[in-house]
Design goal:
Blueprint lengths: L6 E4 L6 H10 L3 E4 L4 E3 L5 H8 L6 E4 L2 H13 L11 E4 L2 H9 L13 H11 L5 E7 L5 H8 L3 E11 L5 H9 L5 E4 L2 H10 L5 H4 L4 E4 L2 H9 L13 H13 L1
Parallel strand pairs: 1-2, 1-8, 4-5, 4-6, 6-7, 8-9
Antiparallel strand pairs: 3-7
Helix pairs in contact: 1-11, 3-4, 5-6, 8-10
């Protein structure tokens, strides 16, 4: 099996790592789940609640992650509403995993970009034309501003609401350093920029290049890869399709070579 005897570290949130770990194990990998992020609700639901109370005023709602879908619908239900509250709105999902969460809730997804990044959403909306449209963007507290700023430049009104936060779990630094010093990891996988930054925080006083010298770094997409490179590290593995199945496949291909 192509990943036999390979040890792969997954840094994504624990509740999201099951599918990835299962796929890797099917190819013979040994998986270490080491979440460097934890997904939690926002400190205040005020802005989400305000948006929910005026959903009929929006033309589009954009979800940039499955987490955004999960927490937004959770709050929608807590406010005594359901998917019918979104009838009349067009829905954009950044990629297939996000779209899948929406479909599970009975929502119709009107647009998924060809590439699963904010820039690709903007290209699609530019073709459709959004001047004068009102758009709701439900996302993480910490996120790039390229999407809301780009939409505003096209003449849209954009309300950005914090549907969830990513925080750094407590502890784990000693265990991580021990794994890397003993050369017990073959691949470290990153599925978001926050997984990278929190991972680096745990190792901030270490000589990173020496510690990771024999470790392949795998990133789900270009934004995550950019965060790794900005830290002075090399990205060895990156899929053309920015999904967990895509990332799994290129890891397999990397070791087949």
């Amino acid at each position: 099996m192509p990943l036999s005897e390979k040890i792969i570290l997954i840094t994504r949130a624990r509740e999201q790592s099951v599918e990835f770990a299962t796929r890797l194990k099917k190819f013979g990998a040994e998986v270490i789940e080491f979440p460097t992020i934890e997904i939690v609700p926002p400190l205040s639901w005020r802005n989400v609640d305000r948006a929910i109370s005026q959903l009929k005023s929006y033309d589009w709602i954009i979800f940039t992650s499955a987490n955004g879908v999960n927490f937004f619908y959770q709050r929608l239900n807590e406010k005594g509403k359901d998917r019918r509250s979104l009838s009349g709105l067009k829905i954009c999902a950044i990629g297939p995993a996000t779209a899948e969460q929406l479909k599970k809730r009975g929502a119709r997804v009107d647009y998924i970009p060809k590439e699963f990044v904010a820039e690709s959403i903007l290209r699609g909306f530019k073709r459709m034309g959004v001047e004068g449209k009102k758009i709701l963007l439900a996302r993480a507290k910490k996120a790039r501003d390229v999407l809301p700023e780009g939409l505003k430049k096209m003449g849209a009104t954009v309300d950005v609401v914090e549907a969830y936060r990513t925080i750094k779990p407590k502890g784990g630094a000693l265990r991580l350093k021990r794994l890397l010093r003993k050369k017990e990891v073959d691949v470290i996988t990153f599925t978001s920029s926050s997984t990278v930054t929190h991972f680096l925080d745990l190792l901030k006083k270490e000589a990173l290049k020496n510690l990771l010298k024999e470790v392949a770094i795998a990133c789900i997409g270009p934004i995550t890869a950019r965060t790794v490179r900005e830290a002075g590290l090399k990205v060895h593995i990156q899929p053309k399709e920015y999904t967990i199945p895509g990332l799994t496949q290129v890891i397999v291909e990397y070791f087949k070579k």
